[in-house]
Amino acid sequence: MNSNENPEIEIENENENLEIEDNEEIGTTLDELLQDEIIQYIFSFFRNTELRKVVFVCKRWSELALDPFLWDKLYISKPTEKKMKPIITDFLKSIYLCNCGSKEVNCLTLLHKCRNLRTISFEVVPYTWINEISNLLQACPIESLSFVDFSCNVRSESFLKNCSNLTNFSVSRPTYNAYQDEPFQFRFLSNIERLELVKVRLSDSDVQQLENLENFKKITYLNLNSSLKNQNLNGILLNMPNITFLDISGCHLSLQIQWELLPKLIELNLSNGLDSQQSLLSDNFFENMKNLAKLDVSLSKYSFKLRNLVELPQLRCFLSIESNSNYSSIDRGDSIILPPHCAKVDLRNYTFMKEFKPDLPDSLQSLFLFSCGLKTFSVSSVSPYLSYIDISKNQLSTLPQDFGKNCPNLLELNCAYNSISLIPDSFGQMKRLRKLSFEKNKISSIPDSFQYCTSLNELSFRANSIINVPLFFNKLTHLNSLDLSFNQITKLSDEIFDPLELLTELSLEGNKNLKKLPKRLTKKRKQEKITINFFQIPPPEETNNNYYYSQEKKNCLIL
């Protein structure tokens, strides 16, 4: 949590988020703030709730007269006093220290009282304070400790060697490290039989210490993000047969991996992978990844063939967000065949696709084809669960006539930045559609069947060629936001907006021939913003405090 210049108290739980800062209403100093009735009310408030988190960012800890027996989590950020009020008790289960900037802060001297401590997390701790923290940790009762996160310079080997109940361990090396030349020792982890999650973001020399360690058979989660460079991963994976999640994103790594070592792998993250040899996901990968449900190769340079995806029968999520470079990790011109259980496909910026006509599996829910160079797009059969489609920024001029028929349960559709001139009549069959964008196309008219899309909340026809807004727009009673800006609209009927009680944002700027607004529209109270042509349309006669001239948009009047 970032600290501010002024003292601040933030109290959070699952249902409430109260935030109090110094201001004129509740006092100009921390002393006045702590004596204020509002603070007293907050104290009484969380005495009667199941508070799960208390956060303090302030300058004078000793004056915080709070009852520590109500807490089970403590977050500390930038304390500045030499001595902190003894607020660490038997009831405390979690301690988080972030950006503590003074080694004189001795707030952990009472750690020996924390008999129920489950979680310890340190972030951005200066190297001048390392030895002090390490010594304090030695006195901490660690029998019940299950989660440890050291995103700092703290040397934890000796402290953790007796953590018999530890299940989650996370460590990363900051930019400046006092132990930069000394590799992190992981051998102590071999004594922890219950360990399930290991997250490491260190250097090559550190990660090498993970090789050939025993008792890692229960580990299911391994995150080595940005930690590997030209290193063989097989030695690390040899004793981890139960891994279900593996993150080696951002690594300079050859993919000469014995994938048979990971028979239970469910999620694999290869994003931002850099490999000078441009490794190919081999046949060995597809043969052994029969349980893989999520594959992320976004912005990586590991090449593969789209048609091989069908060999991953359990794949539910496939992400391949290409960079805007001439090199593509997917073979150009390769056809795509989706696995039968696939629920999400993301091929954004894969600019060599040209057309998309695969047989979509019934399980597909989300399809992202942003900036793929598509000239044709079709949904060849009914997709009962398809909810999200993004085909924006392509080269589409038409949509298939059966588009709405084959996507009856679609919730969001983004067709922006294409050259579409005609909306199919079948759009009226998408009665669950909530968000639709045809921004920056060539649409001049809207079909009558559009009136049946009565669930629409957000609708954008920005930058098209629309002249007339159909009267049936008054049937879209769930609209919250309507963007008709930069068209060729000349007139708006009063009857269109009268039933739209939920409409709060309306954009009409850029319609140079629109001379006036409907009178009923200007009298509606629920609208929060209307943008119109400032120079073409004069302000309404009955202005009130809700109208003001925007300094940011000098050509608009905003309501």
UniProtKB/TrEMBL annotation:
Signal peptide: none annotated. Gene3D superfamilies: 1.20.1280.50, Ribonuclease Inhibitor. Keywords: Leucine-rich repeat, Repeat, Signal. InterPro entries: Dev_Immune_Receptor, F-box-like_dom_sf, F-box_dom, Leu-rich_rpt, Leu-rich_rpt_typical-subtyp, LRR_dom_sf. It comes from the Eukaryota. Residues 36-76 form the F-box domain. Pfam families: F-box-like (PF12937), LRR_8 (PF13855). PANTHER family: SLIT RELATED LEUCINE-RICH REPEAT NEURONAL PROTEIN, TIR DOMAIN-CONTAINING PROTEIN. This is F-box domain-containing protein. The lineage of its organism: Eukaryota, Metamonada, Anaeramoebidae, Anaeramoeba.
